[in-house]
Amino acid sequence: MSTTAVDTNSGSESAPLLAAVIPINDSPGDPATHSSNSSSSLPRIDPDRNNTPISGVDLKIKQAEARRGSSFLGATGNFMKGMLGAGILSMPNSFSKSGLWLGVISLPVLTAIVIAAMYLLLQTKREANKKVYGEYHKGPVITYMDVGRSTHRLGGWVVLVSICSMQLCFCTGWVIVMSNNLHGMVPSINYRIEILWIFPLLVLLSWIPFIKQLVYTSFFGLLVYLFGVMGVSYYYGIPAIPDNYSHTVKFNFVTLPIFLSNLLYALGGFSGLVGCESTLKRSQQAPAMMVTGMGVYSVGVLLFGSLLYAGGLGGCGVVLDCLPDEWPVLVVKCALTLALLLTHPLGLSYAVEMIEDVLFSPSTNRVVRCLVRSVLVAVTCIVAALVPDFSVFSSFVGSVLLPFCGFILPAFLYFSITGTRPPFERGLLAVLRSKRTWVTIALLGLILFGCVFLVIGLYTALMEQL
Asked: Along the 466 residues of the chain, how does pLDDT read in single tens digits?
């Protein structure tokens, strides 16, 4: 479908969708495209079209195409790197909630459901592009927020609040881990006082205007996780398995929902998936990228959680707290704290840019923007001070926000964009034979699963604290 046809077809059913999608800024991780949105409102000039003006749809599509340069392995690596975070630190403790063998059985089952939900999110994005532009693999819908805004204004607000809340929760988890590391090294100082030490540093880092261009600092965090955290944890945990295996719980159905909530927190790559798909040189490879990344990462989570729990390191909310206070552990704790300190403003910037896109114009005073960022940093620190146990925090986030953002919301967005429903007007036999019927059943099943997961997970987490 030509862009000219879309631009001039103001009377078609996609016209409201175009109005909803085009004004959105691009993915927060693309400074070049973000700056183009912040420029004047004059028509852009396309050098490939003999200096003819570019429409809003053309500009959005050009920005989307400019992002597509990653190979399959590169995009898969970025997807996995986005999932690797503080959530994996609590997995040995999570296995103590489910029991060793029940956790080993439950992990691949939940992983398969997460993969199905992620595939639905990819299909929802493609359906949005088809409805807006006429093509599955090309169009102005780039981010998760674009998908929400392509339905109607309410959808955009729901996605905005959900994704921003989830990102702020991840940032809060990093503050909790940093503070626990500092408290473990300096136990004589109150935990909340150590958060006050971190707060001004996080505020100053959040003010840096080019913070998104310092994304290479995340590779430092990757090295710390892979070779520092996992290295010392396996070093102390693996040799202790023969002595501790007989003392491990094998099956525990009562607190299984807490294990599943923590696991979902560790696997929560829903928001990053859409961005990684948008960078693939061949978008048709996105499902394979997703399955490969989730498969490899979930195996790593399974091994890390189960082996270290069997090695007697499941008694602490964060696995590093169960290790002896020897110099290798102290070095890793210091490195992890520094890595999370640098990662916090990067993670916060995704929520910040979505909020600023809604609240501010490009000409808004820099001081006002810094004030909003300072308030968001303060929110993450205040919540961290109120909930110092990371495993408790991740279980609440994993039982409420992630089921909604990962299971319930994508299904509702797909319903809204496609209008899928069984053909009841054609009779019972046609309903049973129709693909739309089974798609509807699958979507309703995912919504029901998300609701049950949310209710039971939240109830179990609350009962665990009472």
From this structure: 433 333 333 333 333 344 344 343 333 333 333 333 333 333 333 334 444 333 455 656 666 665 677 788 888 888 888 888 889 999 999 999 999 999 999 999 999 999 999 999 999 988 888 887 777 777 777 778 888 888 777 778 888 899 899 999 999 999 999 999 998 888 888 889 999 999 999 999 999 876 666 666 678 888 999 899 999 999 999 999 999 998 899 999 999 999 999 999 998 877 778 878 878 888 888 899 999 999 999 999 999 999 999 999 999 989 999 999 899 999 999 999 999 998 898 888 888 888 887 888 777 788 888 999 999 999 999 999 999 999 999 999 999 999 999 999 999 999 888 877 777 777 777 777 788 888 889 999 999 999 999 999 999 999 888 7
Residue 45 φ then ψ, to 5°: -110, 130
pTM over 0.90: no
261: tokens are: 């909530």
Which residues have CB under 8 Å from 12's CB, separation 6+?
Answer: none
Cβ neighbourhood burial of 166 (10 Å; 0-12, 13-18, 19+): buried
The rounded distance, in Å, linking the Cα atoms of 23 and 357 is 9
- The DSSP string of 92-150 is HHHHHHH-HHHHHHHHHHHHHHHHHHHHHHHHHHHHHHHHHHS-SS-SS--SHHHHHHT
Q: Which two tokens stand for residue 312?
A: 């007697």
H/E element, 54: strand 52-54
SS3 assignment, position 44:
strand
- Cα separation of 445 and 211, whole Å? 41
Q: Is the dihedral of CA 188, 311, 175, 181 positive or negative?
A: positive
Q: Please give the single-letter amino acid code of residue 407.
A: F
Q: Which residue has the tokens 């398995």?
A: 241
**Rg of the chain on CA atoms, in Å:** 23
Instruction: State the greatest distance between any 2 C-alpha atoms of the chain, in Å, as a whole number.
Output: 75
Region label for 392, one of left (φ > 0), alpha (ψ between -120 and 50) or beta (otherwise): alpha
The closest of 102, 399, 354 to 252, measured between CA atoms, is 102
